[in-house]
Design goal:
The protein is α+β, with helices and mostly antiparallel strands. The longest helix is centred in the first third of the chain and has 31 residues. The radius of gyration is 28 Å and the shape is globular. About 0% of the residues have low confidence. The structure holds zinc ion (ZN). Zinc ion binds next to loops. The site of zinc ion has 8 residues, from loops.
Length: about 600
């Protein structure tokens, strides 16, 4: 059967914002990170229809429908999948490809494209480096010098300069044999409305952004002139680059992070450059936005201790707060360092030196303590109303702390500060924590009953933390999946190893049967499962499997014993052994 190339469908799904599509039919309101509205597929007065733009799916808790953007069009326009694809392409003005003949070729083509893009970025980096050294780069060199960035640091960071030319990079890369469509996909050049292709970065200081392995996958460009906008221009998302999954500088700092047991999280490239150069501590940079949970997962491979060192201005505070809360939720140890007003790590180190900065890091405050101080500041806790206000503010934070001991400790600090009995606060926190977790089970549909908790948890992980869940799935055998109600979900997921993690949720949902897609969207729309780490789900699934095997052996033993033990003695004995062995394995998994 002729199919649309998977790459085309993936690209289309990436470009077609599901909220935008659904909103053509249903008014939606933002509710946290998702959107809510009245379900178009059943009649209701209070909204139970959810759309998750980040993961690219919708789900209705009222009637149970769910799926990706294609499924929405299929249901709403009452068309089959290929027509939903055509419709969506039309809506977004994207040309349909020639129909290909299958997946295999596509994935080979994807891999080849990614290879080519990596090579292209290497060439571009070489060009920017040359330009920085050339006469055209004199001003950029001076700016770096003004900021005390040494030549050795420039080299280590691979800094460069994009000159004020229309298409010098384009011409050069064309000469090196790169085709225009690949160049456009790299994001380093852009096609204007007039059709002409020009360089994206002009008159900018260029900062290569790397994977933690060191391959260059994108660039950040800082404006040279004060009136140049935007001040920072980044590569767009490409087949090799996803902003939310990249931590700037991890490639340079990772060994030091492991060795010192913590990382300093700074905001910008120059903060990074200065902390890195001074060797005050191993830095990584979030580059202006709040950390995503994928970035936390990335960092977790090297450490779970972080010190946040952000500019204490308002914008810095907003992103910093979100980053801190996310890291706490992910179980990180988070400290914050407050510099003086108007100072960032870059200016602080240049003014006061690395030793003073190291001193500030040493005296940094645990984030939770810092939060208590912030929340208590300006509140007269002698008044009962204020105490309640303070308690409520802190409860929502406390409820997110995954570790029970840390949670209780935090509770005691709240109690102390608000002068409320410790037991009362702990109880309140427990209630708040439970409230967060039982949301999923409270709304379960009857057919979910046969899906085990561990399966639900693993499904939740697959959608919300796809890279970790996929890694965990590597440890799963076919036998572990046998008899599971959601078996198909995991089997399909295992075929998606080549998918970029950000595309995995919607691809998975698209490939599943309607029933299983709805199971997945329902679970994924709910709150995080109680199992805090994904490997626990796998252990639980393995334990379930061993228990199934144990039950089968028990049935066989019962049958043989009924037939009369004497003639089956040896057989029964060996079955006992196997059963004992299984019990050990189950025990070991607990
Ligand atoms: Zn509905």
């Amino acid at each position: 059967m002729a199919l649309f190339p998977q790459q085309f469908i993936d690209d289309l799904r990436l470009q077609a914002n599901i909220v935008q599509v659904v909103q053509e039919y249903v008014p939606l309101k933002r509710a946290g990170t998702t959107f809510k509205g009245l379900c178009p597929f059943h009649s209701e007065k209070t909204p139970s229809f959810h759309v998750n733009p980040e993961k690219g799916f919708f789900h209705c808790f009222g009637c149970g429908v769910g799926g990706d953007v294609f499924k929405f069009l299929e249901l709403h326009e009452k068309v089959a999948f290929p027509d939903a694809v055509r419709l969506l392409a039309q809506k977004f003005g994207i040309a349909l490809p020639e129909l290909g003949d299958g997946d295999d070729q596509d994935s080979r083509r994807d891999a080849a494209l990614r290879e080519t893009l990596l090579k292209l970025h290497e060439m571009a980096a070489a060009y920017f480096t040359e330009e920085l050294a050339a006469p055209a780069g004199a001003r950029a060199r001076r700016q770096l010098d003004d900021r005390d960035v040494k030549a050795s640091t420039i080299e280590q960071l691979g800094l460069g300069y994009a000159p004020m030319t229309r298409d010098a990079l384009l011409q050069r890369l064309r000469k090196q044999g790169f085709a225009d469509n690949v160049l456009i996909q790299s994001g380093l050049v852009v096609r204007r409305d007039s059709g002409e292709i020009v360089d994206r970065f002009r008159n900018r200081l260029m900062v290569p952004i790397c994977r933690d392995t060191g391959s260059i996958i994108a660039f950040g460009g800082r404006a040279m002139d004060a009136e140049q906008v935007p001040k920072y221009l980044n590569s767009p998302e490409t087949p090799i680059y996803s902003k939310g999954r990249t931590l700037y500088g991890l490639n340079l700092s990772k060994a030091q992070i492991r060795a010192s047991g913590f990382a300093v999280l700074v905001e910008g490239y120059f903060d990074f450059a200065q902390v890195f150069q001074s060797q005050a501590a191993p830095p990584v940079a979030s580059c202006g936005t709040a950390l995503t949970s994928q970035q936390a997962q990335l960092l977790r491979r090297f450490t779970t201790r972080t010190v946040l060192s952000f500019d204490p201005d308002a914008a810095g505070q907003g992103a910093a707060t979100r980053s801190c809360e996310m890291l706490v939720t992910e179980g990180f140890d988070v400290n914050v360092v407050e510099l003086d007003k108007g100072e960032d790590p870059d200016t602080f180190i240049r003014r006061h030196g690395p030793d003073s900065y190291r001193e500030r890091l040493r005296s940094s405050q645990p984030y939770l303590e810092y939060l208590l101080d912030q929340a208590a500041a300006g509140l007269d806790l002698g008044q009962a109303d204020n105490r309640r206000l303070f308690l409520n503010r802190m409860l929502s934070v406390a409820a997110r702390i995954p570790d029970a001991a840390v949670r209780d400790q935090f509770g005691d600090r709240i109690a102390h500060k608000a002068r409320i009995a410790e037991g009362v606060v702990r109880d309140e926190i427990r209630k708040a924590a439970v409230g967060r977790r039982t949301t999923v089970t409270a709304v379960e549909m009857p057919s979910l009953g046969s899906v085990k908790e561990a399966e639900k948890a693993l499904i939740w992980w697959l959608i919300n933390r796809p890279d970790e869940a996929m890694e965990a799935l590597d440890d799963v055998d076919d036998a572990d999946l046998e008899d599971l109600a959601a078996r198909e979900v995991f089997q399909v997921a295992r075929t998606l190893h080549d998918q970029a993690p950000e595309l995995l949720p919607s691809t998975l949902i698209q490939r599943l049967s309607t029933m299983n897609a709805q199971l997945v969207t329902r679970i994924a729309t709910g709150k995080a499962p109680p199992a805090t780490i994904v490997s626990n789900c796998i252990r639980a699934l393995k334990a379930l499997r061993f228990d199934r095997e144990r039950a089968a052996i028990q049935r066989e033993i019962d049958r043989l014993q009924q037939l009369g033990a004497p003639q089956h003695g040896d057989e029964i004995e060996s079955l006992w052994q196997r059963k004992k062995d299984l019990l050990h394995r189950i025990e070991a998994l607990r």
